[in-house]
């Protein structure tokens, strides 16, 4: 099949494209800046210029493909992110309809079973994008994931960097919701399977074999990483302050951290697990949580990272963001001092 992958240089897209190529699919990717050096697999794909906010460029990118992977998420801050996500999805939906594209596959987040008024702004926006794509004549398959495990994943890097930089884990009393992490290799396998699955328009919750409270997830990481990190439950910590502190202590962009922290007010677990039956090969075994941690933490010099084609996708890859693989080398005390100053300014503004 001829497939368009939007967000091909992102964390998931950069791991999905090689799998699609290995399966024999013809892949088209997009770039916002043609002068920028492409990813390591760029010589094996067709690349076209596309700004997701430009309807004509989106239309041209979708023309002639059998399916589209929609891997674009507006995780930045600002009051207009939802509007931008809406317009981007509408541009793709119009192109799908115009060209009779048969399938669109969207990677989204778990939607907890609560009233929509209780959903975070980012989850609400994800749900709106899903609804827009599902309104087209194309078969629209949405994969909803909570915590993606793997070096370079925003969720994993938050866990890693907070655990490694804080000798004491201060856990808000409201952060006791369950999560169901999934290894990125399993998520990619489900994305590949969604391309040819004999199903109609629908969503799938995707998750790994374990569900556990987020505080326990932090504790499991510390154990596997060989860290001693006592936990202290702290009451009455505002969500926005927790998101700011976590974002300041890590190198993951703060707006992204704040959005992920906000979602932890609800259980982020699978409501159903049909993806195992419909999207994964028969007999496929999901990666366990401890193995996910070990593979994500493996020394890249021992996992063929010098050759991305043979490297473990759970580990670092060349197109990962600069804050991946543990982040920068700024001393902890300096980063903590900056965080404290920022928190004071936030609580006691001028």
UniProtKB/TrEMBL annotation:
<protein>
    <submittedName>
        <fullName>NAD(P)H-binding protein</fullName>
    </submittedName>
</protein>
<dbReference type="Pfam" id="PF13460">
    <property type="entry name" value="NAD_binding_10"/>
</dbReference>
<dbReference type="InterPro" id="IPR036291">
    <property type="entry name" value="NAD(P)-bd_dom_sf"/>
</dbReference>
<feature type="domain" description="NAD(P)-binding">
    <location>
        <begin position="7"/>
        <end position="110"/>
    </location>
</feature>
<dbReference type="InterPro" id="IPR051207">
    <property type="entry name" value="ComplexI_NDUFA9_subunit"/>
</dbReference>
<dbReference type="InterPro" id="IPR016040">
    <property type="entry name" value="NAD(P)-bd_dom"/>
</dbReference>
<feature type="region of interest" description="Disordered">
    <location>
        <begin position="295"/>
        <end position="331"/>
    </location>
</feature>
<feature type="compositionally biased region" description="Basic and acidic residues">
    <location>
        <begin position="295"/>
        <end position="304"/>
    </location>
</feature>
């Amino acid at each position: 099949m001829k497939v368009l992958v939007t967000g091909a240089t992102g964390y998931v897209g950069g791991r999905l494209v090689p799998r699609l190529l290995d399966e024999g699919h013809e892949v088209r990717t997009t770039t916002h800046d043609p002068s920028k050096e492409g990813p390591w697999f760029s010589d094996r794909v067709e690349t076209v210029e596309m700004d997701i906010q430009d309807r004509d460029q989106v239309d041209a990118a979708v023309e002639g493909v059998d399916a589209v992977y929609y891997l674009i998420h507006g995780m930045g801050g600002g009051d207009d992110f939802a509007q931008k996500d809406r317009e981007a999805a509408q541009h793709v939906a119009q192109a799908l309809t115009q060209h009779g594209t048969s399938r669109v596959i969207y990677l989204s987040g778990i939607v907890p079973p609560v009233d929509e008024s209780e959903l975070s702004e980012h989850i609400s926006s994800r749900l709106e994008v899903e609804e827009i794509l599902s309104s087209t004549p194309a078969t629209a398959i949405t994969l909803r994931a909570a915590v993606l495990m793997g070096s370079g994943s925003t969720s994993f890097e938050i866990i890693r960097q907070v655990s490694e930089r804080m000798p004491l884990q201060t856990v808000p009393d409201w952060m006791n919701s369950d999560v169901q992490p999934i290894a990125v290799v399993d998520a990619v396998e489900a994305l590949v399977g969604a391309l040819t699955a004999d199903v109609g328009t629908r969503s799938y919750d995707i998750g790994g074999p374990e569900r556990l409270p987020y505080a326990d997830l932090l504790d499991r990481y510390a154990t596997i990483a060989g860290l001693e990190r006592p936990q202290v439950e702290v009451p009455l910590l505002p969500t926005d302050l927790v998101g700011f502190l976590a974002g300041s202590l890590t190198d993951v962009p703060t707006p992204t951290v704040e959005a992920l922290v906000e979602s932890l007010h609800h259980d982020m677990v699978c409501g159903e697990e049909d993806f195992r039956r419909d999207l994964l090969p028969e007999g496929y075994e999901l990666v366990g949580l401890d193995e996910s941690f070990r593979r994500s933490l493996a020394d890249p010099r021992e996992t063929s990272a010098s050759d991305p084609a043979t490297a473990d996708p759970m580990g670092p890859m060349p197109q990962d963001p600069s804050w991946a693989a543990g982040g920068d080398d700024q001393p902890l005390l300096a980063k903590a001092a900056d965080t404290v100053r920022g928190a004071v300014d936030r609580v006691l503004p001028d």
